[in-house]
Amino acid sequence: MSFRNRLNAGLQTSAGIALLYAALAALWIVLSGYLLTFTVTDPLLQSRIELAKGLAFVAITSVLLYLLLNHWHESHTTHPTAAQTEPTALPKTIRLALIYMSLVLIVPLVDFAIYEFRVQQTEQDAYDNLTSIAKLKAAEIENWLKERHGDAQGLADDSGLARQVARMTGQHSANPSADILKSLDSLQANHGFDSILLLDSGGRLLASRGNDVGISAYARDLMQRALDSETIQFSDLYRDDAGHITLDWVVPVIVSDRHGTQAVAAVILRAAPGQFLYPLILNWPIASYSGES
User: Fold this and answer.
1) Residue 141 in contact with residue 280, Cβ under 8 Å?
2) CA atoms within 13 A on the CB side of 233
3) pLDDT, tens digit, for every residue of 110-134?
4) Number of Cα atoms under 13 Å in the Cβ half of residue 227
5) What does the angle CA 114 – CA 120 – CA 121 come to, to the nearest 5 degrees?
6) Collapsing DSSP states into helix, strand and coil, what is residue 287?
7) CA–CA separation, 187 vs 198, rounded Å?
8) How would DSSP label each residue in 123-191?
9) Rounded to an integer, what distance in angstroms lies between the CA atom of residue 110 and that of residue 16?
10) pLDDT digit string (tens) for 229-271?
């Protein structure tokens, strides 16, 4: 007996139908389950897809059962002659096999569609998440900069300190008073500045707090602009002569007399990005291997 005849005969028995159904069901469950686990990690989404997959399994197996029963019924209700059986058995068997294979291919097609949908959804979720975090980080950095600028403005408005500094520079004294040093200590302790430098209008260092007391050409240029404009100047992140990345606010010390206002000195408020700014950027609100990017 040829293979197609044996296949056709097998499909006409209850055992053959049951075995074919079992093979297709096992293939569906194993293949779809593997693809679902591989492509989807969200438990809620997995449960929803499992439900849809189960309903699709019922629908497809119902179609398969109908085709099998219909084929079995036709083979038992018709009694073709031997001459008619041979030429018609092959097309009918092949046609049924092609239908089975088409239905089986629905499994990877459905999972592929789910995978494509999931990839697009994941990309959009990741983009939305990064956008939200970026806005949060930008707002935090902006608030920090506003606070530091507010500290600088508070120092600029301190008329008592300005008079003390003017008295000191007018006397050409190199020894700052205790009140001046106390003000510098308070600024450093309460407002998070890494270093504070007090310079006269000629750029001579009068007093300092902190370890980073170098004055680069860029800082001197920023100080001169603050003295000339009598307004607070602040820098971008820059590398000083010692190789340190720093951020400066230059506050002119302004006094008034009968001739008007005059900038007699300047205070450089220096913030080290490593103390706050860098940790803020690196601190990611969710688990991420590339959040610092």
Assistant:
1) yes
2) 20
3) 666 766 776 777 778 778 888 888 8
4) 18
5) 85
6) coil
7) 12
8) HHHHHHHHHHHHHHHHHHHHHHHHHHHHHHHHHHT-HHHHHHHHHHHHTT-SS--HHHHHHHHHHHHHH
9) 27
10) 999 999 999 988 888 889 999 999 999 887 788 899 999 999 9
- Structure tokens of 205? 């260092």
Q: Is residue 109 scored above 50 in pLDDT?
A: yes
**243's torsion region: left (phi>0), alpha (psi -120 to 50) or beta?**
left
Only one residue has tokens 């309903």, namely 55
Tokens of 229: 């404009």
| Lookup: tokens for 286 | 């969710």
Q: Bigger pLDDT: 60 or 197?
A: 197
d(CA 276, CA 235): 17
Contacts of 104 (CB under 8 A, 6+ apart): 24, 27, 28
Hey, what are 245's tokens? 């990345």
